[in-house]
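Supplementary notes for students who missed Thursday's class. We covered one full example, reproduced here. Read the sequence, then the structure, then the short commentary at the end.
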Amino acid sequence: MEQYRLLAECLLPARMLDWFDLKTVRVEKKGDTQVIHLYLDENEQKADDGEDLRPNGFTRESVFHDFPIRGQ
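Structure (token representation):
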């Protein structure tokens, strides 16, 4: 799972894994390519200035595509 965490750090917006935990990874073959699905779950960490913020756990999953890889 650690290799997928390193991959997620390269692909996702900066510091996103500070607020979300990598829960599951699924690799799917589509023709000649492989698609990697990264599943994240919001963690309980709060920002220093966000005393009134808390995860609600009620959001639907989102899919986003980004090419080329951010900052790489």
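Commentary. Strands lie at 20-30, 33-42. The helical segments are 2-11, 16-19. If anything here is unclear, bring it to office hours.
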